[in-house]
What we know:
- Its EC number is 2.1.1.6.
- The protein is an alpha/beta fold.
- The chain contains 9 helices and 8 strands.
- It has 2 domains: 13-58; 67-265, Rossmann fold (3-Layer(aba) Sandwich), CATH 3.40.50.150.
- The protein has an 8-stranded mixed β-sheet, sandwiched between helices.
- S-adenosylmethionine (SAM) binds next to helix 1 and helix 5.
- Residues 50, 54, 102, 125-126, 128-129, 131-132, 149-152, 155, 178-179, 201-203, 206 line the site of S-adenosylmethionine (SAM).
Amino acid sequence: xxxxxxxxxxxxxxxxxxxxxxxxxxxxxxxxxxxxxxxxxxxxxxxxxxxxxxxxxxxxxxxxxxxxxxxxxxxxxxxxxxxxxxxxxxxxxxxxxxxxxxxxxxxxxxxxxxxxxxxxxxxxxxxxxxxxxxxxxxxxxxxxxxxxxxxxxxxxxxxxxxxxxxxxxxxxxxxxxxxxxxxxxxxxxxxxxxxxxxxxxxxxxxxxxxxxxxxxxxxxxxxxxxxxxxxxxxxxxxxxxxxxxxxxxxxxxxxxxxxxxxxxxx
Length: 266
Ligand SMILES: C[S@@+](CC[C@H](N)C(=O)[O-])C[C@H]1O[C@@H](n2cnc3c(N)ncnc32)[C@H](O)[C@@H]1O
């Protein structure tokens, strides 16, 4: 900050007034910059966070953000209590203003599907930090299991620790690989013959082709459930459609959750 000597005669308080005026302009600029940075950061986090974080990890190895998330959850959640792990994660997202698409109403819809379907085997594509893996795992009956796929090794490691923290390691297996590599191995390597629920939560352009791949390996039987988002026409009513996989046609009941969420039961 610079102080300018006034080139006019006058009592000392004029000098003080001039300094205060300059302070206000600096303060105003600083506040405007802070507000602008916060707005841009909030926008980028909300709109591009899920895309940018994996990209940054690819370029820089790791952003360490996932480590911070894990440390936070480990510090605040009760070990062995999946609900406490989920609640801690939810609270963190709220304070960081990070939208977690699979919490709230959508999370309840996922819970409802698990409770209604009582699956023996679930397959999740897109584990990320393991929030939904814990969410699904905590509702599985004894002997039931979830296989969850995450190609990003840093995220898969965090998810594995989240699952352990929740005490669900006997029910949830985090597989560090791409769906392409794992689906053909499901029977041989993971002893999967039927999948009751497929939860698609990764890149949307892969949904149909990976579903087809699962089907080609004979893992989808009548009555399987697909949980995913942003596939419907936004109509908030149950309706039946034909889903043509190319190899086979399924009659599906769509159960929309809100304007852009839909689960499919075939
Ligand atoms: C939206 S996040 C999953 C969020 C998670 N289901 C939850 O709500 O807790 C999508 C994840 O899919 C992973 N992913 C990307 N391509 C994949 C693939 N081919 N197979 C499996 N997972 C993939 C990404 O690394 C990312 O962590």
